[in-house]
Write a structure and sequence with these properties.
The chain is of the alpha+beta class. The chain has 2 domains: 2-25 and 106-183, Topoisomerase I, Chain A, domain 4, CATH 1.10.132; 34-101, Gyrase A, domain 2, CATH 3.30.1360. Helices cover 57% and strands 15% of the residues. It is built from 4 helices and 6 strands; from the N terminus they run αββββαββαα. It has a 4-stranded antiparallel sheet, covered by helices on one side. A hairpin with a 2-residue loop joins strand 1 and strand 2. Helix 1 runs parallel beside helix 4 (150-183). The longest helix is centred in the last third of the chain and has 38 residues, at 107-144.
Length: 185
C-alpha cells in the first residue's frame, strides 16, 4: 500500500513539473521559438483552438516567427488573438502569412519576466506540497482504520517528504535555467 501511495505521489508531482515546463516554454526569452505561440487560443468558428492546429509555425531568423495559416480566412482572427495576448508582439500580415518580429528584451522587461517565472515556480511548489498533504492525510486515515501500522505511517511520511524535497529541487533547477535564459543578452 505504501508503494502505491508513493507511486501515486510521484506521478502527480511529475505531472505538476511537466505542466510547469510547458508554462515556461511560452514565456519569451531573447530567441524566437514556436512554443511562444503554439498554445495561443484562437477563436475558430466559436471554439478556442490552439494556433498549432490552425497554422504552421516556423523560425526563419533568430528573432522572428513565421505563421502560415492552413485556412487564409483565419489570418485576421489569428492577428487579433496575438495582439490581445500578453506576448506584447505586433503581427505583420502580408495576406498569406503573419510575421512576428521579436524585439530585443529591455532590462525592465527581463525583470518582469523573471517575476512571472518565479510566480509559476511558486504555484508548482504549492501544487507539489498539496499532493504531499493530501497523501499524508490518506496515510493517517489508513492508520486510524488500522490498515497500516504506526511504523508504516512514519515511513510513508518520510518517503513522501523525500520525494517532495526532490521535486522542489527539480523546480529550482528548472527556474534557474529559465531565469538565465531570460537574462541572457
Amino acid at each position: 500500500m505504501l508503494k502505491e501511495i508513493t507511486k501515486d505521489a510521484e506521478n502527480r508531482m511529475k505531472s505538476a513539473l511537466l505542466s510547469l515546463e510547458e508554462d515556461l516554454t511560452a514565456i519569451r526569452t531573447g530567441r524566437a521559438t514556436p512554443a511562444l505561440v503554439e498554445k495561443l487560443p484562437i477563436d475558430y468558428y466559436g471554439a478556442p483552438t490552439p494556433l498549432l492546429q490552425l497554422a504552421s509555425i516556423s523560425v526563419p531568423e533568430a528573432r522572428a516567427l513565421l505563421i502560415k495559416p492552413f485556412d487564409p480566412s483565419t489570418i485576421k482572427t489569428i492577428e487579433r488573438s496575438i495582439l490581445a495576448s500578453e506576448l506584447g508582439l505586433t503581427p505583420n500580415n502580408d495576406g498569406k502569412s503573419i510575421r512576428l518580429n521579436l524585439p530585443p528584451l529591455t532590462e525592465e522587461r527581463r525583470r518582469e519576466l523573471v517575476k512571472v517565472v518565479n510566480n509559476r515556480l511558486e504555484e508548482c511548489r504549492v501544487a507539489i506540497r498539496n499532493v504531499r498533504r493530501d497523501l499524508i492525510k490518506d496515510l493517517r486515515d489508513f492508520e486510524k482504520e488500522k490498515m497500516i501500522s504506526k511504523d508504516d505511517l512514519e515511513t510513508g511520511e518520510q518517503d513522501l517528504q523525500k520525494l517532495t524535497d526532490l521535486m522542489i529541487d527539480e523546480i529550482e533547477l528548472i527556474g534557474k535555467r529559465k531565469e538565465s535564459e531570460i537574462m541572457e543578452i
